[in-house]
From TrEMBL:
Transmembrane segments: none annotated. It comes from Archangium gephyra. This is Phosphonate ABC transporter substrate-binding protein. Keywords: Signal. Belongs to the phosphate/phosphite/phosphonate binding protein family. Gene3D superfamilies: Periplasmic binding protein-like II. One of its GO terms (biological process) is transmembrane transport.
Amino acid sequence: MKRVALLFLMLACAPSEPVPQPPSRHITSTPPVFSPPAGFTKLRVGLVPFLSKDTISAAHSRLGEYLSKTLSVPVELIVADDYGDAIDRMQRGEFDLVELSPLVYVEASSRMQLRCLVQTIADGSATASGYIFVRDDSPRRTIEDLKGASFGFVDPMSTSGSLFARKLLKDKGFDLARDLARQEFLGNHEAVLLAVMEGRVDVGATYQGAFGSLWRSKGVDPLTFRVIAKTPRTPRDIFCVRPELPAEIAEAITGALLSLTGRERAGREILGPLSLNGFQPANDRAYDEVRSVAAELAK
């Protein structure tokens, strides 16, 4: 027993091997902070009014705060008066960064040089359908039933709210001037939905996320409406900068937007109000079908 006790005592007193430790996770340096180049004191962000101005501004406010923090300059969100006004103001150099819907982008890129950064992703896709819809209690159930109806479009430069809806009607043999009782351009998707809901027009054209947007902003039940036709999928919005903007700023904006993801809480807080999942690198060729349809209907 004495020998056993002595052995345990010797082992207890013997120097032990150091236990390997995991590498330290302590961050010894902070990520580099973007240093704005001389003369760049504010980022002016132009927005197309596809919803009401108040709704657009509120939805983009957190994105503006995020870009301001990233670039170390204030961000001014500017909602254009209408779709065409967004192009005109970009041409006049009033916007540094602009979010353009597909047809507005096609028209803008035909008039001026743009540097495009990213496209939006929503509902897990970089493309979206458009809807031709009526109020749920409407007797109209097919495209053919729309003859003699009053039709609410968004803006002549709206992709889903005008261009592709008119293309579908044309392909179905409609002469809009002859076969519709009345056509109205109501300015934004929210206005079209409200006009249909209130009975001021019989039918409207909109994008696939419009019903959810109206529910969030006005509390209108999406089941108030009924879709009677879908238009082909088109690319979503694209973010571009004016060509004179320094490349380092454009690259910083691109990196900031591409890093946003709905998989992270911080990303969801910014993307959620925009109903987006994230962004992907811009691809001009994705808008070729929009160009083709616009050229066809312009004849």
